[in-house]
User: What shape does this take?
Amino acid sequence: MEAGDNPKLPLNQRDRIVLAEQVMHQSADPTDVSQGGYNTCNVSTIESATYAKNPSEAARLVTEVATTGTYTSNGKPRVTVEVPAGSLAKHGESKEQHEPGSNHRSHASQIFAVTAINIHYAKENARTDPPGQIKYEQREPGPDSGPNPDNGERLYNYAEKDPKTGRPPKEITEKIKDENGKLVDAPVRAPKLSREEIADIAKEINPQPRDGKHDGPVRIDFDPEAKITQ
Assistant: This one.
């Protein structure tokens, strides 16, 4: 709330006040964190758990990104993520007033989700030679049609050129079936995270305890045959 406007970021003082309000609300009631109509359930679980166990770290993440556009994790070694500026502007549900219990994703949750997912891609990019340039972004949703409806989520490779414009980035696509059952190329509309990658992101955001003991992320699987959770 006390930070001045950053000309590199699309956030003004009013936006930061609302973010502060949402962070305080979600710290008080972590169960009200919602993915909304987006494919970010994977990192929404991390967000809810962080607000419940380490609310100061959830607040630090949103604050750093909203005021500087970057976030540095608690991992060893630390990971620094530069969040695409366009993903910080209010998109879709985050434009609405976040009423408690509305099951809509708040602006604070949008920023948390984009940052958390890009922690994973920052680590993946560092593992390639030359270093990769894949980024997850949140943009304004497009028409809700086609085999892979546009909810504004994007996965881009900034190391490749878009065949339409001849300039980077290239939107990453996948093969999916259309309404006729035919395989077609469609833009990726999800973060594409494995269970192990979700656990790794949780460890990067939540600090290691001083006594060296860590509960660690817990994975719950559902076996439809056994009708029990494991």
Notes: The first strand starts at residue 70 and ends at 72.
